[in-house]
Design goal:
Elements: H1 2-7, H2 10-25, H3 30-38, E1 41-42, E2 55-56, H4 57-82, H5 89-116, H6 134-144, H7 150-174, H8 181-197, H9 203-224, H10 229-237, H11 251-275, H12 287-318, H13 329-338, H14 344-353, H15 357-387
Antiparallel strand pairs: 1-2
Length: 395
C-alpha cells in the first residue's frame, strides 16, 4: 500500500473519484444501485446501545470510517507541533495568521451573499467554504507548481494544518447539538486510558488495547452529540512523538506512515465517492439553491485567497514578522488561491449544516465548483508568475 501511495497523486485520485461519483449518480439504473448502496442500513442498532442507531452506509463512512482519517490528522498535528513546522512559533506565525484570514473572509462572504439574497436560513452553512483539503491542495500543487520555492510549499502545508485545527474547533463548537456531558466525560476518561495504553512496551498489547479503547471512545463521542471526527483527532494527538530506546521513529510517526496510504487511497476516495453523488435532476435551481451554490463557490474561490493575502500583507507590515528572504507577496498568491480547494472537511460540514437533502446537495455542488475553479485559478496564477518573471520561484 505504501509503494502504491508513492505512485498515486492523492489530489488527482480525489478528482477522478468525484467525477466518477457525479457520472454514476446521474446514469439511469446505475444510479439506483449507487443510491441503494449509499442508503443501505448498517445495523449498529442491533448492539442495543443507547445513542447508537442504525446508520446508512453513507453515514457509516462519514461518521465512523472518516474518524480514522481524522485520527491520521491528529497524528500529523502531533508531529507538526513537536518536530514539524509548528514547533517553531516564529516560523509558523505567518501561515497560522494567514489561515485565520482564510477562514474569516470566506465566512463573511458566504453570510453576506445569503443575506443579500434574502435567505437567512442558509447562514448555518457559514463554515462550508472555510476548509482547505490538504491531500487535494498538495496533490494539485505537485501537478501545477513545478519549480515553486520550497518555503512557499511549507507555507501551504502549515496553513492547511492550521486550517484543519480551526476547522475541527468550528465543527466541535458550531455543529454539535444536545451535548451529553456524561458521555463526553466518559470519552475523556477513555482518552486518558488510551494515552497510557499506547505507551506500554508491548507492541501487540498497545495495538489491541488502543483499537479497543478507540472504538469505545468513538461510541462515547458519537453518543455525546459531538461529531465523532473529533474523537479521531483527540486520540491521534495523544500518541507519543518521542523517539526512545532503539527505535528510529516515534509511535506517532510509525502509525501515521501506516495509516496515511490507507487514508489517501481508500478512506478519502470512499468518502468523496458517496458524498459527491449529486443527482442533477433532483436539484431544482430555485433562487434558494442558487444562492447557496454561489455563496459557497465565491467563498472558496475569492474568500480564501483574499483573506489569506490581506492577513499576510497586514501582519508583515505591522509586526516584526517578515516574508522569507528572496520572496514577495506574489509568490504566495498562487498557493493562496489553491487554499480554496475544500473537499473533505467542506463536504462534512455540508452534512452538518443542513438537514434538508436538497440543500446538502446544492452546497456540495458549490464546494465542487469552487474547489475546481480555485485549482484552475491557482494554476493560472503560478504560470503567470513564471511567465512575467515575477519574483522567481526557485527550485
Amino acid at each position: 500500500m505504501k509503494k502504491l501511495r508513492e505512485r498515486v497523486n492523492p489530489g488527482l485520485l480525489l478528482v477522478s473519484v468525484g467525477v466518477l461519483a457525479l457520472i454514476v449518480a446521474n446514469i439511469p439504473v446505475v444510479s439506483d444501485y449507487y443510491f441503494g448502496i449509499a442508503h443501505k442500513e448498517v445495523p449498529f442498532g442491533a448492539f442495543g446501545l443507547p445513542y447508537l442507531p442504525s446508520l446508512t452506509f453513507e453515514e457509516f463512512v462519514r461518521d465512523f470510517i472518516l474518524a480514522i482519517f481524522f485520527f491520521a490528522v491528529g497524528l500529523e498535528l502531533k508531529q507538526e507541533f513537536t518536530v514539524g513546522s509548528l514547533r517553531n512559533p516564529k516560523r509558523a506565525a505567518l501561515p497560522i495568521i494567514a489561515a485565520v484570514g482564510g477562514m474569516l473572509f470566506p465566512s463573511l462572504i458566504f453570510i453576506s451573499t445569503v443575506l443579500i439574497s434574502s435567505n437567512p436560513a442558509l447562514v448555518s452553512g457559514f463554515a462550508i467554504p472555510t476548509a482547505t483539503d490538504i491531500a487535494f491542495s498538495v496533490g494539485i500543487l505537485a501537478l501545477v507548481g513545478k519549480g515553486i520555492n520550497p518555503q512557499v510549499r511549507v507555507f501551504l502545508l502549515t496553513l492547511a494544518v492550521a486550517d484543519d485545527i480551526m476547522g475541527i474547533l468550528v465543527i466541535a463548537i458550531g455543529y454539535s447539538s444536545n451535548v451529553n456531558f456524561w458521555y463526553l466525560l466518559f470519552f475523556f476518561i477513555i482518552m486518558a486510558l488510551f494515552f497510557l495504553v499506547v505507551r506500554i512496551p508491548s507492541k501487540a498489547g498497545s495495538l489491541v488495547g488502543g483499537i479497543i479503547l478507540g472504538l469505545v471512545g468513538w461510541y462515547f463521542m458519537f453518543g455525546s452529540g459531538v461529531h465523532p471526527a473529533i474523537c479521531g483527532v483527540c486520540l491521534g494527538m495523544t500518541m507519543s512523538s518521542q523517539v526512545s530506546g532503539k527505535r528510529t521513529r516515534s509511535r506517532a510517526q510509525f502509525a501515521l506512515e501506516v495509516l496515511e496510504p490507507w487514508s489517501d487511497l481508500i478512506i478519502l476516495p470512499l468518502f468523496a465517492f458517496f458524498q459527491l453523488g449529486v443527482k442533477f435532476g433532483a436539484l431544482e435551481l430555485t433562487p434558494l439553491y442558487l444562492s447557496l451554490i454561489i455563496a459557497t463557490t465565491i467563498g472558496l474561490l475569492l474568500g480564501k485567497p483574499i483573506g489569506i493575502m490581506i492577513f499576510t500583507i497586514v501582519i508583515t507590515k505591522i509586526t516584526a514578522i517578515d516574508l522569507p528572504k528572496g520572496l514577495s507577496y506574489i509568490n504566495y498568491l498562487g498557493v493562496a488561491c489553491l487554499a480554496g480547494t475544500g473537499f473533505t472537511v467542506s463536504f462534512l460540514v455540508c452534512n452538518l449544516a443542513y438537514a434538508d437533502a436538497s440543500l446538502v446537495m446544492a452546497s456540495k455542488l458549490g464546494v465542487l465548483i469552487g474547489s475546481f475553479a480555485a485549482a484552475f485559478l491557482a494554476a493560472i496564477v503560478m504560470q503567470l508568475t513564471k511567465k512575467f518573471n515575477l519574483p522567481a520561484p526557485s527550485s
